[in-house]
Design goal:
The protein has 255 residues and is α/β, with parallel strands linked by helices. The chain has one domain: Rossmann fold (3-Layer(aba) Sandwich). 43% of the residues lie in helices and 19% in strands. It has 11 helices and 8 strands. The chain has helices at residues 39-42, 68-82, 94-105, 125-141, 144-154, 158-169, 173-184, 190-193, 213-222, 238-241, 243-251, and strands at residues 2-6, 9-16, 20-25, 46-51, 87-92, 110-116, 200-205, 227-231. Strand 3 (20-25), helix 1 and strand 4 (46-51) form a beta-alpha-beta unit. The longest helix is centred in the middle third of the chain and has 17 residues, at 125-141. The chain starts with a strand and ends with a helix.
């Protein structure tokens, strides 16, 4: 991993392949390693930039509250450092929220947008309450409470469950708490989605226990020009459960 200083943090990132710039943004509460299995299917066509969002993986964070937009600004700082003006971005779950925030603030930098197992709507009040309650639980009892609760819901595949549990357990309390609060306060993006004109793809598993595929179908209904790739049998981790098919969907962004 490489490290760059942006917005008061050290942001870690990896870079693979050559071709059209493509950023892959990981979900909560994971890190850049969640993309490892699709890199071989993309590196011959794309210059792949894979960051660790603030606090996760090898990136540092701050203790004061921050927003999803702050996380998007981190990515803009990374692209400035790399001298990349325009890029396609595909975000998984929370990474999709960050990708949407980036697309809204920096539309001139977007070549295409992909949401993988993600959604555009903000949390309902009960969803916000659950996130704040989980943040308090992590503060008191540590990250293991999230690893234990989330791992079975991320995938029905035992191999994937074992991997994500190990990754989650490695994350810091401050990263998990900060991200939970940022997600709870995030902006509703459905109105923004309806106005998009850039290439846009939705990749979603029909067995996703965390974000139902109906959320992707709602986006498709709001923006009929969006492409929707439904993966039969995939849970919340299609880049690991169906890496070849997920990579094909990402390639379709610019195809």
């Amino acid at each position: 991993m490489n490290i760059v200083a942006v917005n008061g943090i050290n942001l870690a990132y990896a870079r693979h392949g050559k071709g059209t710039p493509l950023m892959l943004v990981h979900g909560f509460p994971l890190d850049s390693s969640s993309w490892n299995e699709i890199i071989p299917f993309l590196k011959d066509e794309f210059d792949i930039i894979i960051p660790d969002l603030r606090g996760f993986g090898q990136s540092t964070t701050i203790e004061s509250p921050y927003t999803i937009l702050d996380m998007a600004d981190d990515l803009a700082g990374l692209l400035d450092h790399l001298g990349i003006d325009k890029i396609a971005i595909a975000g998984h779950s929370m990474g999709g929220y960050v990708a949407l925030a980036f697309a809204k603030k920096y539309p001139q930098r977007m070549l295409g947008l992909g949401l993988i197992s993600s959604q555009a709507a903000a949390d309902a009040p009960e969803g916000k309450e659950r996130r704040y309650k989980t943040a308090a639980d992590v503060a008191e009892n540590g990250v293991a409470v999230v690893a234990d609760a989330m791992s079975p819901k991320l995938s029905a595949d035992a191999r994937v469950q074992k991997f994500v549990c190990g990754v989650i357990e490695q994350q810091s309390k401050s990263a998990v708490i900060g991200a939970l609060k940022a997600m709870a306060a995030r902006e509703d993006m459905m109105a923004f989605i309806a106005q998009l004109t850039l290439p846009f793809i939705l990749i979603h598993g029909d067995a996703d226990q965390l974000i139902p595929i109906d959320r992707a179908k709602e986006i498709k209904a709001a923006l009929p020009s969006a492409k929707l790739l439904e993966l039969n049998g995939a849970g919340h981790m299609p880049m690991m459960e169906f890496p070849k098919e997920t990579a094909a969907g990402v390639r379709a962004l610019l195809g």
